[in-house]
Write a structure and sequence with these properties.
Layout: H1 27-31, E1 39-42, E2 61-67, E3 71-80, E4 83-92, E5 96-98, H2 102-118
Antiparallel strand pairs: 1-2, 1-5, 2-3, 3-4
């Protein structure tokens, strides 16, 4: 086992499915809707080999910049030769996990606090 240079080298546990999750992929995975600007995580899945991302992109977070019928284009930061640049990657839709970006949560927080502060406090009977 010396000098292995394959595409999936060193991915024995990375692309393996969790315990009791082998077999057919659930339909909800395919039906997920992605929009431009969504922040997503890439995750390789060993049950489907078509359109699998390279192991470097496994677990990376990126932003959706293009949505087609069968694939999603995301931008991921990649470090190469002590430089960090963005790298466009086109993946099939079932390789992505939606995550809610923290800035959106923090952005609306002062607005919510202001509305709550200006709202009149009502008693038991509404006056």
């Amino acid at each position: 086992m010396t000098n292995t240079k394959g595409k999936r080298r060193g991915t024995r546990y990375m692309f393996s499915r969790p315990f009791r999750k082998h077999g057919v992929v659930p339909l909800a995975t395919y039906m997920r809707i992605y929009k431009k600007g969504d922040i997503v995580d890439t995750k390789g899945m060993g049950t489907v080999q078509k359109g699998m991302p390279h192991k470097y992109y496994h677990g990376k977070t990126g932003r959706v910049y293009n949505v087609t019928q069968h694939a999603v284009g995301i931008v991921v930061n990649k470090q190469w030769c002590s430089k960090r640049s963005w790298q466009p990657v086109v993946l099939l839709a079932w390789w992505l996990l939606n995550i809610l970006p923290p800035p959106i949560i923090w952005q609306g927080l002062p607005e919510i606090c202001r509305v709550i502060a200006n709202k009149p406090i009502l008693g038991v009977h509404g006056y």
